[in-house]
Amino acid sequence: MRRDIFQAIADPTRRAILVLLTTQAMTPNAIAEHFDSTRQAVSNHIKILSECELVKQEQVGREIYYHLEKNKMKEIDLWLEQFRKLWENRFDNLDAYLAKIQNDTNEHNKA
């Protein structure tokens, strides 16, 4: 089953797992130590992140390490960029409007 990447990152625990993996690859047990939930629950979150290709597993000896799939995170960032630009433009317009109101008020008070 192909999962939706945005549903995957909507969960706060999965977002926290992604943040943990930004600094280093970790085993499932090491990840689970950071949460007050069962190892099985954390494994389920990791499974969902893996299905969305946000994390990748690597076998090192007898251990499995998970690491962040940076290219997939870049896809999310590119999608969000369109909204970032939209909101920046709206805030710029608001700043200009507020500056105009402030100038108009100052000129009115001088008169």
TrEMBL record:
InterPro entries: ArsR-like_HTH, HTH_ArsR_DNA-bd_dom, WH-like_DNA-bd_sf, WH_DNA-bd_sf
Domain HTH arsR-type, residue spans: 1-88
Pfam families: HTH_20
GO molecular function: DNA-binding transcription factor activity
Name of the protein in question: Transcriptional regulator
